[in-house]
Amino acid sequence: MIYAFALLQNVLKPAGPQAGRVAHLWWFIFWICVVVYLVVAWLALVAVLRQKRAPEGNERAAARNVAIGVGITVIVVFAVLIASSVTGHEIATPPQGPVDIMVQGNQWWWYVEYQGGKPSDRVVTANEIHIPVGRPARIHLTSIDVIHSFWVPDLAGKIDAIPARRNVFWLQADKPGLYPGECAEFCGFQHAHMRFYVVAEPPDKFANWLGQQQQESRVPQTPEEIKGRDTFLNAPCVACHQIRGTTAHGLVAPDLTHIGSRLTIAAGTLPRTRGNLAGWIVDAQRIKPGNHMPGINLSSDEVQWVAAYLESLK
Ligand code: CUA
User: How far is ligand 1, taken at its centre, from the CA of residue 158, in Å?
Assistant: First the structure.
């Protein structure tokens, strides 16, 4: 779980077709720039080292050289323009048989929703997007407050999440793995703590995950978990958080129905351990100042119970 924090993002090591196209374009432009730089440097060197002044009346040769330079420049600019348009067109081409996922930017976390055939198939989670390997995931992106930007460098280019507007794009992972993503547009105090993970799994594993997430929350078993649930349901937590299968139906904060199955809490800020859950409940403002979770007045026993209960929500 903690190893997720050691993952590096690399736009030049694409793990899917969308990022691959962007990387190809990048290398194409890079090598053009290298050649242009070397040629210009060489010409500058020749001009500096040449001792002899050109003989009088050589304007025609100079005009010809300028015309050649302008011609090459125009060709290079058009080559880059055409390559960019082709890449843009390929990226925008709608995929076949995608998984549809709604993603909504919030200060400072990501709401994630999978719509099934019927309302009970709907899955809601946060800061973690599971996708099947080798199949495109079509992201319907929006925002509830300010402009955010959704970016998983290994899988696709970035795209803005804009309030009252839906941007649709797709990404795909060609091999299983954990791909870190982040908000790439400054969106307030905790912009830097607005990370998420794309978990690419083989199709059967993905189907299992989806089926498990469709279930209502696990019923607490141990006395500690039961006390945790009762404490949670009697605290202000329920005003903002939802735990399906209980009376907690708040919709403004991350859904906690299966929080015990997630890798991190607070949008990639901390690994999802019991200790971190407890620390978050005790003083979320110290961990992520400015976030919308208020202080909750619980005894230290109650905090431990709630943390145990949340951890049990696999
Ligand atoms: Cu959301 Cu930066």
Answer: 12
